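#struct-pred
JK: can someone run the complex with protoporphyrin IX containing FE? inputs below
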Amino acid sequence: SKKHQGNENTKNKQLNLFRVDDRGKKMTTNQSLKVSEDEFSLKAGERGPTLMEDFHFREKMTHFDHERIPERVVHARGFAAHGEFQVYESMRKYTKAKFLQDPTVKTPVFVRFSTVVGSRGSAETVRDVRGFATKFYTEEGNYDLVGNNIPVFFIQDAIKFPDLVHAIKPEPHNEIPQAASAHDTFWDFVANNQETAHMVMWLMSDRAIPRSFRMMEGFGVHTFRLVNEQGEAFFAKFHWKPKLGTHSLVWDEAQKIAGDDPDFHRRDLWENIEKGNYPEFELGVQIIREEDEFMFDFDILDATKIWPEEIVPVHLIGKMTLNRNVDNVFAETEQVAFHPGHVVPGIDFTNDPLLQGRLFSYTDTQLIRLGGPNFHEIPINRPVCPFHNNQRDGYHRQTINQGKVSYHRNSLAGNTPTPVPEEEGGFKHYQEKVEGRKIRSRSESFKDHFSQATLFWNSMTKPEKEHIIDAFSFELGMVKSESVRQQVVDMFAHVSLPLATTVAKNIGVRAPKGGGSHVTTSSPALSQEYTKKSAAT
Ligand code: HEM
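RT: done, structure tokens with the ligand placed:
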């Protein structure tokens, strides 16, 4: 069709095998029996009961009865598009990932944007974090960069994620409210888990009410690892920078649009792609050498901390263009399964305890959301290169694997899949040396919850600060528990006493007394030394 012309990338060609055009076709059952009547069920006489033998009625109704699958446990409300990614110049120095080598290669991508808290039908312009998940269909397998539009996270350790989500989702006794940040449990969680401070500052800022998916930044959040051909590793953070710039709504607009057009963001993305106004995002990386791991006043494994860009600059290394809308939202947008653990040779993990837990969670949830272990065979999830192993069976298996041997190391069949040495592209985990006692704590700087939250506040312009004060006052003002309101105001006095004092006044609680006496591990001397060193190399 016209829509797919000019998009003949490998993924699009593969999807063609599955596209079905039902228009003008004869109606059949799923067994391909031609159907003669689709409006009257089979009855015993004009006024009699419906007959059990009406297989057409039964099939049609049964299929309908099973149309829904569970929505995502978070990020349920999302919208996606296809596109392509091209690197500007070879990243060989840092990584051997094939899709980051050759500027002439276009890698197909699929990107799903989302809100986090609301259910599948919720309004899109609410105050919330936005998901920004990208699947690169590379020649070495699928690489997923499953990010958000805010560069830090609420918590530092995955074990708290269920608690966080229970606090931000609608309260269980009455399922109110859909929006994240205007209720008792959210703010109670914040006040009692103060590592949330930095992220909450972003959440109360204009970043949490983006103007358009086309005008949002994206962040991988965690520290990842790049590994080059020589086996050298580098710490890396990923960024997406929108070519249109980063823009937000103002709160009054966001609220009115939520009522007027709850589909505002998807409509904007869909219509612009249809018009040929293709959204573009540049991929940026921040890189820290392994030997510099401890040169910062924060732990680079702490997902509540950014790497300040003036200390570790962002290099723009490539561009992604979204140029095609989906054919079918359920088949593509809903069935896509992203996972931070989908990596390719040259990209690896770090011991960030939030990332480590995510590596478990995504497949686990998709096993139930997508009905068993074969969801990699769903068209949108298939790699564009072949995949072979000895995994077999399970619900909805599509492939017909040949032969009697489905186990590794055998003498009966010489032709079963065999592991591939690293030199020939086999993935080998980076051989980081690890040593330690089994403990549940982290480095001391993980306890510094306020230094970067303060940095964020201080970097805001006057109108941005006013918006943050308004947001705190509105959202926290909705909280019924006076104790929670007070706890939050007292907490944010550690970020800015004027901020907390103004909010306290606006929402009718006592002005915080202190502030500023929080744990700080800040040692700018360290970063200065790093800046000097990197300028010299
Ligand atoms: C979706 C878990 C942190 C970004 C999800 C889903 C789960 C999950 C279970 C639903 C997946 C599905 O049904 O397919 C977790 C856990 C986290 C965590 C356990 C922390 C321990 C994060 C962080 C980010 C993030 C830090 C951003 C860097 C996303 C995105 C989606 C998502 C973008 C939606 C993907 C899509 O569009 O299908 N997460 N998450 N999550 N998560 Fe996380």
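RT: quick notes.
Residues 345 and 425 are 7 Å apart (CA to CA).
The two ends are 53 Å apart (CA to CA).
JK: thanks, will look after standup
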